From TrEMBL:
Gene field: xynB2
Chain ranges passing through the membrane: none
GO molecular function: hydrolase activity, hydrolyzing O-glycosyl compounds
Name under which the protein is recorded: Beta-xylosidase
Annotated keywords: Glycosidase, Hydrolase, Signal
Signal peptide: 1-20
Species per Swiss-Prot/TrEMBL record: Asticcacaulis endophyticus
């Protein structure tokens, strides 16, 4: 009778909606004796539309936090670095006044603001992923009656960011010379060895109407002349692109053909130097039945298609790939109910679940994944937790940044790991709304083992917690192992939740600010030591929905 009752209870639990259950069991297995290959730190790339925020108080504070993740191995990409203007920051805008012309049409170069931006990076352990663009006003071929700068603001249509800045040059030789002079200046100021570590690419999303108003061929020409300028100043520089929106479609096909076998517009030679290739991938959240439902399937499909496209070109099968923007959706500066996931732990759990599948897709396609760039930074002097896609609000780190702190603690070598509740890759590409994804990845570095676990669902709703039974093997001869836990969830390492508890103040005083800072920090917790028997051990632990956890077994 007891067996019948137990079976009946189990069947009822399977038929209940996820939110109606209190918990469900998950078995995690990790074998530290079975390496599966190196784990590249592809997560160490970040970026933003607004370059001038890097020189401001909160921008510099956040840059320091990024640089601490992996000093001198973190990269930052920014739009608008060559725009004409006084350097005042604004939504989806920035300027440096690097290039103007005198009354006779002669170039006037001014590197003061670009230096300030790059100095802000380098002083904090961050290096440039240097985007060459957009077009200075004096070089723009845009209509003379068109405003050079756009007047876009949150709530406006995305297409309204157009202006003279997104047109091809009116003089390609002057364009090349600008890029040459900038690169030469950087080599002189920062040193050849330093600049050789940077990435150089031209423009942003030239396959879409928002950022590029020329033809594909005009972009190839603009790209060739810019790359020629970089190479003339620093022949060994790392150059690539084209940072297309999505996998790039026919535009990317044409670009790949051009850089392999087309006639170089600047040099007349066959092909264009290409040390890395870049495309973008975005999800598509929507507001459904009173809550946000993420669209990770669209994000992963774009990655899948981008890898397929590059892997199909024999000459670029092994070329390093940077997903130059990889995010849950497309506009960091656009608020709205569908973007209400950003401040809390939906964003952090999405990041953990999506990065794991991007690593997996790179293995499936056997491509050389070099970087996955999170297009999120901070928006200076905006309302607290205003709903922009950012890593910090008014100098207070959001939960998502703690996931990158976890990544920084992973070792260089993956080991075998599995979870009874980790959804297969193809299911993730179809969408994560029916079942929860409780996934795992594990690494080792010497005798140290790192186990990262996340609990994710596309629906931003409460749900049952996962009762984890973690089974570890390959632990060697040690009889006792120390275990340290790092955790971010709706109640832990979550400044947004603490701000809500305060009553959501829009002008926190200095004491409240200190409390928010403390709440944003992910504190290590020492768990009960593991007793190791014949190289094996186990522990039981709970992970709530939208939680991400890292266990360090040392």
């Amino acid at each position: 009778m007891r067996q019948i009752l137990t079976l009946t209870a189990a069947l009822i639990a399977l038929t209940l909606p996820a939110a109606a259950q209190d918990s469900f069991p998950v078995t995690i297995t990790v074998d530290a004796s079975k390496p599966t290959g190196p784990l590249k730190p592809v997560w160490r790339f970040f970026g933003a539309d607004e370059p001038n925020y890097a020189t401001m108080k909160d921008g510099q504070k956040l840059l320091a936090h990024l640089g601490e993740l992996k000093p001198k191995q973190v990269y930052f990409r920014a739009h608008n670095l060559l725009n004409t203007g006084d350097g005042t920051a604004a939504f989806k805008w920035g300027s440096t006044n690097a290039y103007t012309e005198d009354k006779d049409g002669n170039p006037v170069y001014n590197w003061m603001i670009t230096d300030m931006i790059i100095d802000s990076y380098l002083d904090r352990g961050v290096r440039p992923y240097l985007q060459i663009g957009f077009m200075p006003e004096a070089l723009s071929s845009g209509p003379k009656d068109m405003p050079y700068r756009h007047s876009w603001r949150p709530g406006f249509k995305y297409e309204l960011i157009e202006g003279g800045w997104n047109y091809p040059p009116n003089d390609y030789k002057k364009w090349e010379e600008l890029v040459y002079q900038w690169t030469r200046h950087n080599v002189e100021k920062y040193g050849r060895d330093e600049v050789l570590t940077w990435y150089f690419e031209v423009w942003n999303e030239p396959n879409g109407p928002s950022y590029w108003k020329g033809t594909p061929e005009e972009f190839y020409k603009t790209h060739d002349y810019a790359i020629a300028g970089v190479k003339r100043a620093l022949p060994e520089a790392k150059v690539g692109g084209p940072d297309v929106a999505g996998s790039g479609g026919a535009f990317m096909d044409g670009f790949l053909k051009h850089v392999v076998s087309g006639k170089n517009y600047a040099t007349g030679e066959t092909g264009t130097p290409t040390d890395f290739l870049a495309f973008h991938a975005k999800g598509s959240p929507k507001f459904v039945d009173g809550h946000v439902q993420m669209g990770m399937n669209n994000h992963l499909k774009a990655v899948d298609n981008g890898f397929k496209k590059i892997a199909a070109i024999p000459e670029h099968k092994n070329t390093p790939i940077v997903i130059g923007e990889s995010d849950p959706e497309g506009c960091a500066a656009c608020p709205g109910p569908q973007n209400g996931y950003r401040n809390g732990t939906m964003y952090s759990s999405y990041t953990a679940a999506s990065f794991a599948r991007i690593w997996e897709l790179s293995e499936r396609h056997q491509v050389n994944l070099d970087g996955v760039l999170t297009w999120a930074f901070t928006f200076e002097d905006q309302p607290w937790f205003a709903g922009y896609r950012q890593l910090a609000s008014n100098g207070i780190d959001l939960p998502v940044l703690n996931v990158f702190r976890m990544y920084a603690k992973l070792g260089p070598e993956s080991v075998t790991a599995s979870s009874s509740a980790q959804l297969p890759l193809d299911d993730m590409i179809s969408g994560v709304t029916q079942k929860n994804d409780v996934g795992v990845m594990a690494t080792r570095e010497g005798s140290k083992i790192a186990v990262m676990v996340w609990h994710y669902n596309d629906n931003d709703q409460k749900g049952p917690e996962a009762n984890l039974s973690v089974k570890l093997s390959g632990l060697g001869k040690a009889k006792v192992r120390k275990v340290t836990q790092y955790l971010v969830d709706p109640h832990t390492a979550n400044a947004y939740a603490e701000w809500q508890k305060m009553g959501s103040p829009q002008s926190p005083d200095q004491d409240q600010y200190k409390v928010l800072e403390a709440a944003s920090v992910m504190h290590p917790k020492t768990l009960a030591p593991l007793t190791v028997t014949k190289g094996t051990a186990g522990l039981d632990i709970t992970l709530v929905r939208q939680g991400v956890m890292l266990l360090i077994i040392d």
